[in-house]
Amino acid sequence: MSDTTPGRLTKLSRSVAGKRVIVTGAASGMGRATAHLFADEGARVAVVDLQPERVLAVTDEIRDVHGADAAIDVVCDVADHDSLKALVATVVDRFGGIDVVVNNAGISLVNSAFQDEDTYEANWARTLDVNLTAHSRLIRLALPYLREADGGGRVVNIASTESIVVTAGLAAYAATKAGVVGLTKSLAVELGRHGVNVNCICPGPINTGMTSGIDDEAKQLYAKRRVPLRRYGDPEEVAQMTLSLCLPAASFLNGAIIPVDGGMSIRHT
Ligand code: NAI
Q1: What is the pLDDT of residues 189-206, one digit of tens each?
Q2: Of 6, 144, 162, 238, which is the most exposed, with the fewest CB atoms less than 10 Å away?
Q3: Cβ atoms within 10 Å, residue 199
Q4: Structure confidence at residue 244 (pLDDT)
């Protein structure tokens, strides 16, 4: 090999071992799978949710496998600004910093134009607080720590295919998910130079708590009609993409909006 021949490859790491990770909405569904996956890969995880018993259950599941230091339980309503401040303070106190934020907590309240005014207003406001404002606030609060993260900080925002194709009666949900895409792009452009990569995943239909009210037959019918892979996805399949976006080796990925939807969003007929 001559002196001018470049080396075969650099040594970009595919390990998140030791990373300090916040996962919101981690008591159920994709958040739970994400918390487990990061812990399985050697990260330390803050399991964040507003359901105290389930937060503790998921945290204990992780600790049982990986030891007491692998996870902390944080009960937090992400819609409450002070609770988010307390969350960041707790994580920094226990882990010494923050390397990764996964903004996953979300709700899908019915929000139809024909609802009575009080219900419409309440559902609109709550959905915006939980699904969009919380994402923006948590990134800002974690920013001083993400900037200090070894190899750069990472943010993964969970939006939805509802940011692209929508369902009647979910106005606020669709608005917030499109908002998360916009937030991701704006912060990716602003924070990239400060060592923080911001990316977004748009899951399609996934078997989680959010879709547990839909009966199996209706799910199968929908999937066969709409999803090229002809099925709902599993939470783990989204968690794997979230993890991939946070690998040190994914260092040049910034501002990406990635569907994990079995091909649903690009299907025409
Ligand atoms: P899930 O209902 O199983 O889990 C959501 C978790 O968020 C729950 O544990 C819930 O307690 C928590 N949460 C809700 N409001 C909260 C708050 N104010 N503070 C803290 N935690 C809160 O649902 P899933 O499906 O795992 O949802 C995760 C994300 O994926 C959400 O942002 C959702 O919009 C999104 N998504 C879900 C899809 C699906 O088909 N299940 C499709 C596309 C996106």
Answers
A1: 999 999 999 999 999 999
A2: 6
A3: 22
A4: 98
Q: 129 CA to middle of ligand 1, Å?
A: 13
The answer for residues whose C-beta is within 8 angstroms of residue 98's C-beta and 6 or more apart is: 20, 21, 22, 88, 91, 92, 142, 145, 146, 149, 153
Tell me the β-bridge partners of 101.
Answer: 22, 155
Q: What is the pLDDT of residue 10?
A: 84
Cβ < 6 Å from ligand 1: which residues? 24-25, 27-31, 49-51, 76-79, 104-108, 130, 158, 160, 203, 205-206, 208-211
Sheet holding 153-158, edge to edge: 71-75, 44-49, 20-24, 100-103, 153-158, 196-203, 257-260
Task: Give all domains of the chain, ordered by start, each with its CATH number.
Answer: 20-262 (3.40.50.720)
Task: State residue 7's pLDDT score.
Answer: 82
* Residue of 75, 71, 77, 12 lying closest to 41 (CA atoms): 71
* The two structure tokens encoding residue 103: 């903004």
CA of 135 to the centre of ligand 1 (A): 13
Distance of CA 89 to the CA centre of its chain: 20
Q: Which mutation among 210, 257, 264 tests ligand 1's pocket best, with the greatest number of atoms within 8 A of CB?
A: 210
Whether pLDDT at 1 is above 60? no
**Is 173 one of the annotated active-site residues of the chain?**
yes
Q: Token pair for residue 150?
A: 């070894």
Tens of pLDDT, residues 50-76: 999 999 999 999 999 999 999 999 999
Mean pLDDT score of the chain, rounded to an integer?
97
* Cβ–Cβ < 8 Å for 124, 172: yes
Please list the residues that pair with 23 across neighbouring strands.
47, 102
